[in-house]
## 1
Amino acid sequence: MAKGLTSRKEDYSKWYNEIVEGADLAEHSAVRGCMVIKPYGYAIWEKMQQQLDKMFKETGHTNAYFPLFVPKSLFEAEEKNAEGFAKECAVVTHYRLKSNPDEPGKLMVDPEAKLEEELVVRPTSEAIIWNTYKGWIQSYRDLPILVNQWANVVRWEMRTRLFLRTAEFLWQEGHTAHASKEEAIEETVQMVNIYAQFAEEFMAMPVVKGVKSESERFAGAEDTYCIEALMQDGKALQAGTSHFLGQNFAKAFDVKFATKEGTQEYVWATSWGVSTRLMGALIMTHSDDHGLVLPPKLAPFQVVMIPIYRDEAQFEAVVGRLKEIKKELEAKGISVKLDDRDTQKPGWKFAEYEFKGVPLRLAMGPRDLENGTIEVARRDTLEKSNLDQNDLVNKVSHLLEKIQENLFQKSIDFREESSHKADSYDEFKKILKEKGGFIYAHWDGTTETEEQIQKETKATIRCIPLAGKKEAGKCMVTGKPSEQRVIFAKAY
Amino acid sequence: MAKGLTSRKEDYSKWYNEIVEGADLAEHSAVRGCMVIKPYGYAIWEKMQQQLDKMFKETGHTNAYFPLFVPKSLFEAEEKNAEGFAKECAVVTHYRLKSNPDEPGKLMVDPEAKLEEELVVRPTSEAIIWNTYKGWIQSYRDLPILVNQWANVVRWEMRTRLFLRTAEFLWQEGHTAHASKEEAIEETVQMVNIYAQFAEEFMAMPVVKGVKSESERFAGAEDTYCIEALMQDGKALQAGTSHFLGQNFAKAFDVKFATKEGTQEYVWATSWGVSTRLMGALIMTHSDDHGLVLPPKLAPFQVVMIPIYRDEAQFEAVVGRLKEIKKELEAKGISVKLDDRDTQKPGWKFAEYEFKGVPLRLAMGPRDLENGTIEVARRDTLEKSNLDQNDLVNKVSHLLEKIQENLFQKSIDFREESSHKADSYDEFKKILKEKGGFIYAHWDGTTETEEQIQKETKATIRCIPLAGKKEAGKCMVTGKPSEQRVIFAKAY
């Protein structure tokens, strides 16, 4: 399969699509902009879900489920939020089909089944959830509410790309309610930290934590925190966001609580989410011109075993031994697939699993069986070696850790090489054109300047880094004073 | 809380609603017929999901995800299926809202953003999935496909009830593709067996496995297998279905495969699903006039601990000891909630957790602390006893097992008492009117007779039991010959 793969240099976007489809991760569906997530791709998403869900629960959150549909009148209650999503809303207007009298066997929308009020398919759930929270919150005793939802959402995008931008996508959305501003901000920061930890420890993807500029903020938020990653083509990808919503939704839905002191106050809110877009980020961060590369912590199976044999007797002997080893590996918590199909040749299998990014490949033939050895190939470095079967479980375990670390280190190195400072607008444009990547530059803090830069260069402010050091400087465009460099990049 | 609970005798339906809402399981939303599943209710659903997902994976299935929307032209391809669901379809017709010029701050559907082809919000996914499988299947080597999806679906119901019948609900739907009829039937039967095993072992809910009569069959199926449970009001509840779809969808979507012999054949299909309706079944099977009763295997927490104290020092001492016990229980895999809130009195907490169906309550006061004892209350029998703290983990573990068994046995006993044979139509009507329950009777196998019975008595054929013994008899209505008794009941 890898033979046919377009290289990153040749056409990065084509390379990406070929990996997504060729590695059986996802494909386009008959519905414009909607994707089918195939079993192998979904298994990676499940691993992500399990880990994130664990981290959410460890920090006191519980899951719940809210309706898919939002009545238009609720949707428009928080005006900024509504305005921000109005152009991307799929709208249900009817609730019945009927036989089409003009075309036997065909159906048509029944005009008599028109809804009195249109229903928006949720692009995000603040509206329906805050309308619900109104019934849950009376006093400070009812706070905080720390709820998360795993769901599908729909945003009608005109230009879609598998995982990165699809009309329907899967995500989680946390929606919390608090008695004080401080507590809500603390929650917002806690969640962006959790996202960063997940990205780095599990996806092996380094991220910058930061705050969005006003124009990149979530519609309806007071502040949007984010994690930004850098892809191999030098473009940035926003991988997760956590919003401090202030009292905007509480005011829109009239959600007040009685304080300990007996006064009535509006509730403070946050929301935070990551989506199947993370799949796109994962693919683009590690994969190479041989196909997908997966970090062991998120691989559906970490080890694939392939028997080499010439006849039935050899097959039995080799597969017998591989089954023993499989059991030992699984006992140690390592996930293993033994591909003992006789419909495909070993060479075909080698290519298949290399393309699918399985971290470690173990191959064993009759000679290995005699010698007590086994061939191990790492997907990240493509290195092969012959190992003694003795103490194999610990060796495999150790290798998987090394692969996880190596992928992370490689991505950090790449990001460091691709991060530049620009001190003038000309320098900025030059770097952007020649190298791309993260460009740290001074900006005067105004939306006007930001828009001008975007218009002239297509770069946007990815974030104001949380860990960025204060440094007096001058905006590269207007020369006005700036306190800190912000990160510019072209972005997905 | 239980004080206010309507009794089952008084008003069964009201009792049910009060439990669902009072135990914080679910509530109605602002969207007609759609529910909010609250954290405590969702935690039970998560337990169900985890167990079912495990059972599906152990039998070789993997998860995937298919689009929420089905283009009308695909939806109508399998005519029987389309006809069966047409009247319940929510339809997306537009993809954008815009500002309403007549009402500042309000939105309206943008008439210019009308879709060329309407999109049906999936009521079930056979159409979109078989349209996808067409691209996945060329040869017998691509079969079987054993895929499951966890998703939301929408069926526009006119009369809704929380969990039992809602416009949107959560479910899993398995969709498999096979090279032979035999293999597809085997899969269909395997899945109904898995559902039965899940219902009995985890929900502690006895079920009858059977086959549906033609008129109760899934639209587009050749045969529908089901599990039927009996609720405490004598009404039946269909708790899960598994469909043998024959080649109907393969023909509708032209999905053929090359056999080993080189011929082209249509693929054989199954689909199977259970939904959040199981929550309704669980609630109605075990709960009593004191509130919800949960089987330990599906309870969000199996044990609740409540400290009894008069002052700060007692609180510290008692809670300190409870925390130690909690750790010991958790180490054994028992889930525990320690409610050490000082905003609520112990009596309030007792009532709260009784209503919420927590299987075991442990209460400890200063005297218990001195004596090394603890009070244990079982939710199923409401029995209290004082246990020695010595070896408490094993005692709790044993009690949880006993509760699980007791709930199952009680439900079996109830079903046995509520199952009757009727040998004449008069006897049938009398039993139905006086006792309800499952009525085993002979039927001539025709849809006409079935419809007559339903019209005259409101009872339907729940299933033709798989384990029912062959027994020559005469249809209670027409006197025509019958080979086996079938189960009639009024149903949810």
## 2
Amino acid sequence: MLDAIKAIKAINQSASFNRWAGCEVHQAADGQAELRMNWREEDMGQYAGFLHAGMIAALLDTVSGYAAATQAGRVLASHFSVNCISPAIGRAFVARGRVVKAGRKQVFVAAELYAQPEGKGDEALKLVATGNAILVPVEEIQPKPAAASRA
Amino acid sequence: MLDAIKAIKAINQSASFNRWAGCEVHQAADGQAELRMNWREEDMGQYAGFLHAGMIAALLDTVSGYAAATQAGRVLASHFSVNCISPAIGRAFVARGRVVKAGRKQVFVAAELYAQPEGKGDEALKLVATGNAILVPVEEIQPKPAAASRA
Amino acid sequence: MLDAIKAIKAINQSASFNRWAGCEVHQAADGQAELRMNWREEDMGQYAGFLHAGMIAALLDTVSGYAAATQAGRVLASHFSVNCISPAIGRAFVARGRVVKAGRKQVFVAAELYAQPEGKGDEALKLVATGNAILVPVEEIQPKPAAASRA
Amino acid sequence: MLDAIKAIKAINQSASFNRWAGCEVHQAADGQAELRMNWREEDMGQYAGFLHAGMIAALLDTVSGYAAATQAGRVLASHFSVNCISPAIGRAFVARGRVVKAGRKQVFVAAELYAQPEGKGDEALKLVATGNAILVPVEEIQPKPAAASRA
């Protein structure tokens, strides 16, 4: 599925928030996807210095969208939920999503977010949040409004 | 409730993500809160140029936390869900939260996110997302790890 | 909207679970619906004698479906969530739902469940649970399998 | 963990709704639980003759509570969500839950509901719904009001 990951990496780069966050697509094929992002203390924290819940949601929602996209093409998030089960502290974060059911009208995805402790590798990944998302396939590609106005 | 809003504005400024996003606390008293944030195309968009779902979640989760804090003091988000009901397009976004039930162990909050169309005022606010959050009161203030290490 | 409520009462009677539970449709028009059900200790309780969470979900999901049906016709529940905010104790229960957004592919509904204390009227209704549902419009009426096989 | 399953079977029998539904506890140990229930057309259906969403929620919520109880003792459901991913049609239903995180204040559980087609065994189980639940440990056992009044 080289094509799927290539297309999804391109979508990832077309999202200004993902570029700002430094989200990187590490896997995207067959209903599964993986994202990685480095922690930045200066603009990603909540009041206690953990990763902000919005960033947790962003990673879970984004990886869910990419997992769905491997089976359903362009999708839009319709609903998602997040369980914050441990303080999100780490030098980097890894989000993994997998399609539970790809229907014609709705794609259901489950996702997990792991924190990578300072000075450790993947063997030390710790589950910090879980999520569920429902994505709706988009028939036609929605043009980016700003790009359209520049055209 | 001048003190509540003052304390919550201070918490808001202590979160690096909220400073980056330019979130402003407009109201926080009696179980209700309101946040405002200006749209920035260059770092807040998803692939189609709408406000990123992570930003939608961040605003809903943050306003829910502030609504809860007016009744329960320091809280941590435990669970939240988001319904994306219309494309989140606007020059600014307004998030409003209200406590549904403040229990001893859990505070339930409902929230809405509105988009302010370009060139229009509050009378034109359009509902773009709804959310629900469960927050858990924190007995002791969690020191900010990075700040602690600098001390 | 006499027709809507008549059609929805007929749907309600066609569901064997709703007949068993004694659910009654009290309102169904313009994106809103109301259901009532009497408490029965002998077959509706959880271990502590409160209304079972499944019954709470059933009432919230059902009223959400009827609220959606007033605007979208036949629908199927796709996702729903329930917050149990107070012990569900009462002689009767009242569920109210209202459409938040009726889209072409998905209808978003918010709902509340109230308990009516023993010996009191509607003025004493107490909020015991809140819910959110996403319903998907069904193009064609799904025949009841058992009814079809009997035909 | 013979004791855990024995205690949970006793709790299951103390819930009048579970007795009515014929829910049987097949497993309950080490953060996992399994329930089984036979389909009854005459009192468990929604309008199209599938298993009612309230019954789906009841099974998912109940199995989540039992999975949590193996690690946290008596618990009360605080929040749960259900994804209905396929029509719930079968001669019996199997619900499985597993604890994702057992915290001091909240226990997070993920659950699945499978349908067993007519005339087939476990090898043909089909996933029809998924769920997530948050349960709150109860310090003291809540006496069953009716039982207490009979005492």
